[in-house]
Design a protein that fits this description.
By secondary structure, the chain is α/β, with parallel strands linked by helices. 26% of the residues lie in helices and 33% in strands. It has 4 helices and 11 strands, in the order βαβαββαββαβββββ.
Length: 147
């Protein structure tokens, strides 16, 4: 399984949890990729456009997931959101449940939920919103793992 891990490094515990997730996935024979900014820091394989990704793990919050969708619009892999904040609508896996959730994903014991995206037009641009979040300039279904 090819997994892209993207962490919001401004969140407390992001560095530590990213390393733990990397180690756990590598131990379970997953290929773990990272963005240009994070691949070196966390000893991940560098993700480059064209690499087939089966799962994106976003460590942060709902905003982190939406940033992933915005920065990688061509990646259509489901996103697993690990919530490093308080309340998460999209990133709904709390830190203590991280490895249970990864176990279930690696076993195939999950379902995928598609979340609604709305498109709006102004005179000069196309805008998008996902349940209270405003995005600009692209369209994509958001797929979230449900454990």
């Amino acid at each position: 399984m090819n997994i892209l891990v993207i962490a919001n490094l401004s969140k407390p515990k992001a560095h530590e949890l990213t390393k733990s997730v990397r180690d756990y996935l590598t131990k379970h024979n997953a290929k773990v990729f990272g963005t240009k900014e994070q691949a070196t820091e966390f000893r991940l394989q560098l993700y480059e456009e064209g690499v087939s990704i089966d799962l994106i793990i976003s460590l942060g919050g709902d905003g982190s997931i939406l940033k992933v969708v915005h920065e990688y619009p061509k990646l259509l892999a489901p996103i697993m959101g690990i919530n490093l904040g308080s309340l998460g609508f999209l990133a709904d896996i709390p830190i203590p449940k991280t490895f249970d959730a990864l176990d279930q994903i690696l076993r195939g014991a999950y379902s995928v939920q598609e979340r609604l995206m709305l498109e709006g037009h102004t005179k000069n641009q196309v805008c998008f919103a996902a349940r209270g979040f405003f995005l600009s300039g692209f369209v994509r279904d958001i797929k979230i793992f449900v454990i």
